[in-house]
């Protein structure tokens, strides 16, 4: 009986917490369908009515104005390239760390673990200055096509940590058998180890996607904002002159931004849990 009461109390408690977390999201969703005058008054906390309902006009204005499609393109390019680079490079690094017992591998693992502790604000000014110095030549780090290398550095900590934990649960005999059959290290990794990493790959990929897609500070510091704007950066440009804000289109843009991430998270939720649990196993 005591256990049942405890479960009921926890269910009620976490339900209340969930409501508090969902309320801002639902408020943005409801206001994205309202007229501008209704959002700026006391009816901001009310559901859309026949007088305040604005249909899909806010979404049309959000897509047509401020270069939304180009910002969507840049966000997709940055997210896809960065996540792909993180998955490939960090999984290879974790394989080396888990299989080579040397002071170099231990130092690499310690540095990756430390990078998860160090806040971004600690290095953001130095990072922006370093990125500006690489304008010389073809490799320009202030473009959406090369910022993925910077994301690789910041995303390596979590990815290497999770991949290393999962690598320890993979039997070494599989790799030894592949090498006996004539596979070189690259063939062994991509043909034997890489497919086994699927649960951890999905979980790391989803977590990194959610971070990179919603990131505002790093693109603002690194990218040339006159030419390139990601979706989070674009939202700030719905501010007009003299402090005026286009609340309707801005909220519609926010909804269009969070929907893809919510869908990805809901689809891969079970893989995230499975990948985190598998990464916690020590072989």
How does the SSE layout of this entry go?
Layout: H1 2-31, H2 36-39, H3 57-64, H4 68-99, H5 103-117, H6 124-133, H7 148-167, H8 172-180, H9 185-196, H10 198-214, H11 217-222, H12 231-235, H13 247-267, H14 269-279
Helix pairs in contact: 1-13, 3-13, 4-5, 4-7, 4-10, 5-7, 7-10, 7-14, 8-9, 10-13, 10-14
What value does the Rg take, in angstroms? Answer: 23 Å
Q: What is the CATH H-level superfamily of the largest domain?
A: MetI-like
CATH architecture of the largest domain: Orthogonal Bundle
| Through-space gap between termini | 39 Å
Describe the model.
The protein is mainly alpha-helical. The protein has helices spanning 2-31, 36-39, 57-64, 68-99, 103-117, 124-133, 148-167, 172-180, 185-196, 198-214, 217-222, 231-235, 247-267, 269-279. The two termini are 39 Å apart.
Give a quick summary of the entry.
The chain has 283 residues and is mainly α. The two termini are 39 Å apart. It has helices spanning 2-31, 36-39, 57-64, 68-99, 103-117, 124-133, 148-167, 172-180, 185-196, 198-214, 217-222, 231-235, 247-267, 269-279.
State the main characteristics:
283 residues, MetI-like fold, 2 domains, 71% helix, 0% strand, globular
